[in-house]
Amino acid sequence: MANRITTLFNIQLPIVQAGMVWASGWKLASAVSNAGGLGLIGAGSMHPEVLQEHITKCKAATSKPFGVNLPLLYPEIDKHIAIIIAEKIPIVFTSAGNPKTYTAILKAHGIVVVHVVSSSKFALKAQEAGCDAVVAEGFEAGGHNGIEETTTMVLVPAVAKAVNIPIIAAGGIATGRQMLAAMVLGAEAVQIGSRFVCTPEASSHSMFKQAVIKAEEGDTCLQMKRLVPVRLLRNQFSEDMKFGEEQGLSVSYMKNKLGKGRAKKGMFEGDLIEGELEIGQVSALIDAIKPAAEVVQEIWQAYNEVKAQL
């Protein structure tokens, strides 16, 4: 399939694997790229030397394009930028910060820059900053979320109306049918996270993967709105945070409760009680662990089948 996104990334299929913390290492990124999509290394949970290692291994595992997802609020961001430039990474997805800060620097080195947004306002800012495309990520998505709580069904057409650069839809997408819906709304590709968590190549803990498979409708919730909104699988930690918010406890108390390493504890180490388990609403539709390449082909085949039926 040829459109502005597949041409921009030099990929076969308009399917992007999200750069999720504690899940998106070189194994997953290379598997998705080898299957015809775009794999992303999630740098948000990596120290610079770890990111370097994953880039080196990803290059050895695929000759196809892959990228790096870079949260702009990461404390060692300058070292990550230096590694990305030195390694000639062709594509960078930025999030959680002002796109003006690093877009010009990255583009000066020939890097394609995509920014993740949760509103039309931020999409326009990304376009003004020189970004080549945006990810319009709806409220259904796992992990860190926008304060607007706009769903993908509303956000994608709103962003499509606001900007001229191509749009990648994200949030609540795990099937070919959902991908087709996103494309009809104005997207030219989809970014998928939760579905790729449940693959052998994802670096997340096996117990976390099993918890995602068992999840049903209503088993995720948006929490920590007073700190930074994040969608979590319900467990003791999420209920404790919910109680704190309902009781109006101070932000400092909530920060102390969150502490450090909570996401690693849950998603990487498999603590399903006290860990932070970031996952999307679409987890209710995921019922099996399958290889990443099989997931890509399954989504693409279903997309074409449903499109033909309609």
Account of the protein in words:
The protein is of the alpha/beta class and 310 residues long. The chain contains 14 helices and 11 strands. α6 (120-128) runs parallel beside α7 (152-162). The longest helix has 18 residues, at 292-309.
Keyphrases for this structure?
14 helices; 43% helix; single chain; alpha/beta; 8-stranded parallel sheet; 11 strands; TIM Barrel
Structural category? alpha/beta
Which percent range fits the helix content? Answer: 40-55%
Give a short account of the largest sheet.
8 strands, parallel
Strand order of the largest sheet: 1-9-8-6-5-4-3-2
| Low-pLDDT residue spans | none
As for the number of domains, it is 2
User: Do you know the CATH architecture of the largest domain?
Assistant: Alpha-Beta Barrel
Quaternary state of this entry equals single chain
Summarize the structure.
With 310 residues, the chain is an alpha/beta fold.
Note the topology.
Blueprint: H1 4-9, E1 15-17, H2 26-34, E2 39-42, H3 48-61, E3 66-71, H4 77-86, E4 91-95, H5 103-108, E5 112-117, H6 120-128, E6 133-137, E7 143-144, H7 152-162, E8 167-170, H8 176-185, E9 189-192, H9 194-197, H10 206-214, E10 220-223, E11 230-233, H11 236-246, H12 251-258, H13 262-268, H14 292-309
